[in-house]
């Protein structure tokens, strides 16, 4: 698998999506941002874990 983001870039993108009001629901991100999901799941055990790491994990719409 080819990765195109660092762990910090993954977290930064999650925060950016959250700040624009985009849904961080796993299904939505997987559909609209597949590279972000792929990279997040490489660095973190689950999508939820990546969300928690950013501090927005409890605000999933």
Fold blueprint:
Elements (H helix, E strand, L loop, with lengths): L6 H13 L6 H7 L1 H10 L3 H8 L7
Question: Would you kindly provide a brief summary of this structure?
Answer:
This protein is an all-alpha fold. It contains 4 helices and no strands.
Question: Care to describe what's here?
Answer:
Helix content is 62%, strand content 0%. The chain has 61 residues and is an all-alpha fold.
Keywords:
single chain; 61 residues; mainly alpha; 4 helices; 62% helix
Order of helices and strands: HHHH
Helix % is: 55-70%
Which outline best applies? globular
Q: Give the low-confidence spans.
A: none
Count every helix, treating DSSP H or I runs of 4 or more residues as helices.
4
Summing up helix and strand content along with how strands pair, one would put the structural category as: mainly alpha
- How many β-strand stretches? 0
Cα end-to-end separation:
29 Å
Rounded mean pLDDT is: 91
Strand content: under 5%
**Mind describing the biggest β-sheet?**
none
Gyration radius from CA atoms, angstroms: 10 Å
